[in-house]
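Why show two proteins at once? Because comparison is the fastest way to build intuition. When a single record is shown, students tend to memorize it. When two are placed side by side, the eye starts asking what differs. So, the first record is below.
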Amino acid sequence: TSRVVKTTEFEAYPMSLEEAVMQMDLMNNDFYVFTNSTTMEINVLYRRQDSMLGLIEAHTSKKPAPSAPRA
């Protein structure tokens, strides 16, 4: 059974990391999903519990996702 209770769609516009930080601050959000204009890959910028910022750089893989371990 899925635990996803809401789905939201939006466009991840190409921008620099600095621009993404500005957008996240302007929107007063704790995370921001964008397309990195240098790599053209999806990135997730997030505010950490220590108020610093973290960055997840997603890379597209052509391999299938690994299977979850069975209980």
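Second record. Ask yourself what differs from the first in the token line.
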Amino acid sequence: YHTERHAKFSYSVVADGCSWGEKSRLAAQIAVTTIKQTLDERLMDPRAIHSAHDLGIILLEAFKNAQNQIG
């Protein structure tokens, strides 16, 4: 897991490999790292979010990036 705190917002990223072995643990680590990187990049732009819909698009992008990294 990872928790990030900023002046105007905070977020946590949680992924669980469900104790299904090394591959699942690695996939969870990759997911947390990739989602954190995407959110850090996108949320630092003050023009990125104007609505809950904008935030949803950024979250979906983060999940897609994580899935692509996991393969």
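One difference worth noting in the second protein: The chain has a mean pLDDT of 89.
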